[in-house]
């Protein structure tokens, strides 16, 4: 690749954004041709004091209240990784769509050539997708807000209205079950039980954050024509029933882990013991509530998109538990 490459990662102050930035900084080691180009990574953050990664250029961007800051930041790059991450602690539910639209408007004015939009939501495909997003009945203000799913769908629509299809890549990563289970680590450690949504006929899409990072970085450093206009879904290596999840956890942690079915309200109470941020909890509950029903076909769609992009399969749930053994094991149980 000989052309100048400048990549801006929005939401770089969250765990996923930080991991993407770090992954991009490793790309020249894997692809020496990048060492001879003007390859530069820009980390868009909410506060200039935050330093996601040492070698990235950190820029403060506020596309909602200061649109010029976004335009100025994006004029220096050709590609935008439009990450909207409610788990970063910075994106609030009422501002998620406005934040994305601010970046999209700035990208248009800055003549961005390629936008990669990661979304944790699959397309709505009845009867496999549940018809409703879980509602927080205890918070009337949040109940009246647009759900995260609705906002992410609106972001996709805005992108398609603002740019040609060839300039956009959609990267879906539904069911990041692995990382979400870390929110229940103390509960699993103490009780050897895994809280799951109260429906034994659900099947869970499963992917690992490390695989999302690998796919994202490969797309971002590739020529635009390689991935522009395409839509990918990172799942794998397979979808899991609740029984299969318990088996994978038991094998990975080397002790019996049982499934404990809970209502959305019960799951919320467990999560609130881990984080007091109701915004994070609301987002996690949406993702846990929007899993696929077990229909006549047994499983929802599995893709090999990760292999197509990176040339290798993803990390299994058992591998995740093996690698995170200490997080789910106390000295007494270990």
TrEMBL record:
Family annotation (Pfam families): NmrA
Alphabetical list of InterPro entries matching this protein: Ergot_Alk_Oxidoreductase (IPR051604), NAD(P)-bd_dom_sf (IPR036291), NmrA-like (IPR008030)
Domain NmrA-like stretches: 7-312
Top-level taxon in the UniProt lineage: Eukaryota
The protein's name in its UniProt record: NmrA-like domain-containing protein
Upper taxonomic lineage: Eukaryota, Fungi, Fungi incertae sedis, Mucoromycota, Glomeromycotina
């Amino acid at each position: 690749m000989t052309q100048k490459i400048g990549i801006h990662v929005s939401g770089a102050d969250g765990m996923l954004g930080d991991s993407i930035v770090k992954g991009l900084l490793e790309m020249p080691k894997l692809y020496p041709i990048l060492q001879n180009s003007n390859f530069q990574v820009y980390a868009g953050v909410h506060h200039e004091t935050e330093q996601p990664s040492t070698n990235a250029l950190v820029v403060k961007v506020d596309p909602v209240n200061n649109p010029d800051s976004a335009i100025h930041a994006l004029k220096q790059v050709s590609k935008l990784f439009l990450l909207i991450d409610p788990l970063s602690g910075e994106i609030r539910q009422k501002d998620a769509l406005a934040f994305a639209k601010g970046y999209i408007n700035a990208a248009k004015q800055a003549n961005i050539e390629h936008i990669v939009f990661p979304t944790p939501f699959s397309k709505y495909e009845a009867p496999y997708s549940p018809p409703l997003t879980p509602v927080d009945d205890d918070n009337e203000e949040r109940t009246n807000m647009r759900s995260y799913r609705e906002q992410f769908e609106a972001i996709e629509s805005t992108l398609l209205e603002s740019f040609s299809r060839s300039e956009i890549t959609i990267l879906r990563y539904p069911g990041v079950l692995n990382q979400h289970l870390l929110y229940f680590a103390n509960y699993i450690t103490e009780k050897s039980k895994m809280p799951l949504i109260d429906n034994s006929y659900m099947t869970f899409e499963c992917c690992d954050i490390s695989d999302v990072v690998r796919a994202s970085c490969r797309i971002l450093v590739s020529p635009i024509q390689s991935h522009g206009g395409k839509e990918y879904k990172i799942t794998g290596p397979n979808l899991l029933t609740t029984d299969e999840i318990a088996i994978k956890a038991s094998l990975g942690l080397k002790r019996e882990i049982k499934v404990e079915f809970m209502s959305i309200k019960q799951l919320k109470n467990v999560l609130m013991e881990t984080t007091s941020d109701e915004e994070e909890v609301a987002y996690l509950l949406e993702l846990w509530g929007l899993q696929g029903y077990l229909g006549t076909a047994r499983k929802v769609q599995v893709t090999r998109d990760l292999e197509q992009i990176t040339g290798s399969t993803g990390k299994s749930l058992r591998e995740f538990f093996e690698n995170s053994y200490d997080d789910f094991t106390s000295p007494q149980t270990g």
